[in-house]
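Hi there,

I know you've been waiting on this one. I reran it after we fixed the sequence typo, so this is the corrected version. Both the input and the resulting structure follow.
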Amino acid sequence: MAINLQKGQRINIGLSKISIGLGWNPNEGTGYAFDLDASAFMIDGNRLIPAEEFFIFYGNTDSPDGAVHHSGDDPTGGNSDGGDDETITIDLAKVDSRVTEILFVVTIHEALIRKQNYGQVRDSYIRLVDDNSGQEIAKYELGEDFSIETGVEFGRLYKRDGQWKFEASGIGYREDLAFFLAKYFKGQIIK
């Protein structure tokens, strides 16, 4: 049976191949289409991305170590009917040795221009699935915790004593994707 996680709750992974499913349902009638984007930030012990290629999103769907793969952008939220909108698959055995943490962030594309925020999005969640069995391991539903935020760190995988663990973060920001890139990457970004 899957574990329903609460904000801040942590679990041991104990698996190598997992999928991170992220889902959401924007409210209708807000005037503009919603485009939510899931990203994975692979960061090192200094809490920085070791190289640009370790930032995984719709424009860079595979990490250079072959450990992380993004399913691609779902610009309308229409990829699912109640299921995952975007998926990130991970083989923890292949993760570059410099990487000690993988953050999963979802931002609203052009939120400022479209005047959109998480108060207009419902049923947001992150879930972990065992890739070998297809069974859901754990799920964290954001609930009604967010209103004015435009970017949310849903969860993170982190390595402690050689073991990978998952934490349901649930940290909201009134920021866009550029904010997270500036926070975790100090090199020049080539677009």
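Quick highlight: Helices lie at 111-114, 177-184.

Best,
R. S.
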